[in-house]
Amino acid sequence: MDILTLFIIVPIITIIALVFSKGLERSRLVSMIGSIIQLGMAINLMFAYFKERAVNTDIMVFTKDLVWFKSFNIHYNIGVDGISVALILLTAIVVLAGVFISWKTSELPKEFFISLIVLSLGVYGVFISIDLFTLFVFFEIAVIPMYLLIGIWGSGPREYSAMKLTLMLMGASAVLLVGILGIYFNSNADGGALTFNILDIAQVHIPLAAQKLFFPFVFIGFAVISALFPFHTWSPDGHASAPTAVSMLHAGVLMKLGGYGVFRVAMFLLPAGALHWSWFFIILAAIGVVYGAFSAIRQTDLKYINAYASVSHLGLVLFALLTLNKIAWNGAIIQSLSHGLLTALFFALIGMIYGRTHTRDITKLGGMMKILPFIGAIYVITGLAYLGLPGFSGFVAEMNIFVGAFQQNADTFNRVLTILVVSSIVVTSVYILRLVGKIMMGPLETNGVTDLPRATWYEKTGILLLMLPVIGIGVAPFWLSDMIMKSLEPFIQGVL
């Protein structure tokens, strides 16, 4: 069996094992073992990729092609490049950390972990797919479990939040399907057969009118899941109502599908459409960056603060992609990885604080460092990494984005927007330092709870799984940056 199909088979086996497991302990154990195996596979894939790339110059490696529906030329066509490998590794890390952070889940634990694994299966499928239709199917598999995870295991207005999220994302999927079909029916513009194969379509000269027409459909269809302004409103409500592990996977992994789809499909297959529409969508992305930062500063609920911060930081990814600059694109991919790790860390820490104090209101919290030193120390470090302090992954990502965006064509329009987006760093510093000062360093306030349990071994394991790569990327970023830059070459050439 090929190395990539295992990322579909192992989650399915894990799900089957969960179905037949009995009791909370066995559900935890099966989920943990399955997730550890997935992480091992992701690490093995990374080393195998480096080895294969040394002798293979194809755009995608480890490719496999099996016919699904011959009449429509739909194939199970898979392969990866450096960007896919990096995102697969991110997914494996966040999933395993989410399992550890959810260790205490006692309400329908089997069904909860099954839903988490189904979500991860869909995400893996998107990252390995070369066939557009197959990619879309896996995209929907990743989105659907969110309704159950929030609606059943969430808190607060969970039914409202789950329904709002589902309607917004399903609406975006309908728009995306129109765009994909538009690409498909124009994939024979050079006289060949209709195809869903991304690499084959990239060689076709799709008519300019079709590119201009369908680019907004594909871009919006993917970008909504990355909380593109003004379609972002589902995200804060969804995060606030979701259980901790679901927020981790939602922000850490699922929302990365938007930027990935924009890069892999919209930019690559419709380059003329990207050039035509970039000015419009880059304005929306810039607004999202600043709006998310200012919205976060006004919140008092820890989850809402992190949710709006995610809107801002994912807006950076879309902004960087729309600059059509190689350095900025490199920053966009690293930002996706960095944000995935850091936002999952924040949600994990928020869940740990809420589980002990039973509140997320920052006005009722203070002095946590004195009684929860491990959680407090990691929270401070995560906050500093989130605002882009050198030595952490956020600095590497944001420097690439800002430098690339500012130098693109020496264009005044891009430079003004870049300066506007850079200003969001100041706002981010305000709400991060405000949080640290209030809930960690301030007078002792624990919402009336005086005896707070320390972090457990499984919570520490989940936290360290996320923290170590953040520091690793910040201290030694060049191996990752080189891997991404080499994978960007065939994609950026199409839009320059």
TrEMBL record:
Record membrane topology: Multi-pass membrane protein
Main location: membrane
Protein's cellular compartments: Endomembrane system; Membrane
Domain of life: Bacteria
Keywords from the UniProt entry: Membrane, Oxidoreductase, Transmembrane, Transmembrane helix
Pfam families documented for this protein: Proton_antipo_M (PF00361)
Entry EC number(s): 1.6.5.-
Molecular functions (GO terms): oxidoreductase activity
Domain (NADH:quinone oxidoreductase/Mrp antiporter transmembrane) ranges: 130-414
NCBIfam families, per database record: NDH_I_M
Protein name: NADH-quinone oxidoreductase subunit M
Species this chain originates from: Gaetbulibacter aquiaggeris
